[in-house]
Amino acid sequence: MRKGMMLVEVMISIIMAGILAAVLATMGYYTIIQGNTLKQQNSKTMLEVIRSRLLNQASNPDNDAYFELLKEAADNTVPVSIGLGKDAWGRNIFYSTFDFGMHNTNATYADNNSTSISPNSNVLGRLISKGEDGVLQTLSTDATAQGDDILLEIGIGETNHLKLYNGSEVATQTRGYNSAIISSSAPSSPLNGTLWYCDTNATLNMYNASTSQWTQISP
Predict the structure, then answer these.
(1) Are 67 and 122 in contact (CB under 8 A)?
(2) pLDDT tens digits along 79-116
(3) pLDDT of 115-157, one tens digit each?
(4) How far is residue 132 from each of residues 14, 34, 51, 155, 204, measured CA to CA in Å?
(5) Cα–chain-centroid distance for residue 153?
(6) Mapped to the 3 state alphabet, what secondary structure does the chain carry?
(7) Are 108 and 70 in contact, with CB atoms under 8 Å apart?
(8) If 0-12 CB within 10 Å is exposed, 13-18 middle and 19+ buried, where does residue 169 land?
C-alpha cells in the first residue's frame, strides 16, 4: 500500500514538474515576444530621431533647388556626426541617399545621382533597421519593408528650409513634409516642393523648380 502511494506521489511530482516546465517555457516565449515588440517600437523611434537629425543637417551645396542629406558612411551606415546609428538590437542601421538635380561634388553630402535607392518617387534617403534577425531583406527595388525590416524614407519636401527674417535672419528651421508657408504673396527664393498657402484667396500651392512655377493643388 505504501509503495503504491509513493508511486502515485512520484507520478504526481513528475506531472507537476512537467507542467511547471511548460509554464516557464511559455512565460519565456512570451517574454521574448514582448522584448522584440519593444525593440521594434524603440527602433522605429530611433529611425525618427535619426531622420530629424539628418534633416537638421541637410544642405544645398550645389545650389540646385534640391537639398542634400549627409552622405552615408562606409558600408551604408549613418554618419558619425549624427550621434546615433544603431537600432534597439544594437546593429548598424542601413542608410542610403540620392542626389536630385545637379551632381553634388561636396564630399560631405549625398552625391549619388545615378543609382536609385527606392522605387517610390522623390526619396532622398532611406533608413532601415534589419529587425530581429539582423538580415537586410529590403532592396532598393522594394517599395515597402520586407521580412522583419523596419523602413523609413526621407522625401524631398522634408528638407525644405524656411528662413525667418525680421530685418535680419534670426533663425533657420526645418519644415515638415506637410507644412506650408502662409502669406498673401508668393515666398521669394522657393525650393522645389515648397508649399505656400495664400491666405488672401485660401489656396494651397506647390513650387516646381523645373518650371519655376507655382501650381495650385487645393482647393
Answers:
(1) no
(2) 999 988 999 899 999 999 999 888 889 999 999 989 99
(3) 999 998 888 999 999 988 999 999 999 988 888 899 999 888 7
(4) 36, 12, 21, 26, 43
(5) 5
(6) CHHHHHHHHHHHHHHHHHHHHHHHHHHHHHHHHHHHHHHHHHHHHHHHHHHHHHHHCCECCCCCCCCECECCEHHHECCHHHCCCECCCCCECEEEECCCCCCCCCCCECCCCCCCCCCCCCEEEEEEECCCCCCCCCCCCCCCCCCCCEEEEEEHHHHCEEEEECCCEEEEEECCCCCCEEECCCCCCCCCCCEEEECCCCEEEEEECCCCEEEEEEC
(7) yes
(8) exposed
Domain residue spans in the chain?
A: 33-158, 161-218
Complete edge-to-edge strand list for the sheet that includes strand 150-155: 94-97, 123-129, 150-155
CA dist., res. 90 & res. 32, Å (int):
16
- pTM greater than 0.70 (yes/no): no
Look at residues 153, 146, 150, 142 and name the one whose alpha carbon lies nearest to residue 96. 153
Tell the residue number behind the cell numbers 504673396, with chain if given. 185
- Mind spelling out the 3-state secondary structure of 130-166? CCCCCCCCCCCCCCCCCCCCEEEEEEHHHHCEEEEEC
CA distance 61 to 40: 35
Cell numbers standing for residue 191 = 525650393
User: How many angstroms separate the CA atoms of 119 and 191, rounded?
Assistant: 23
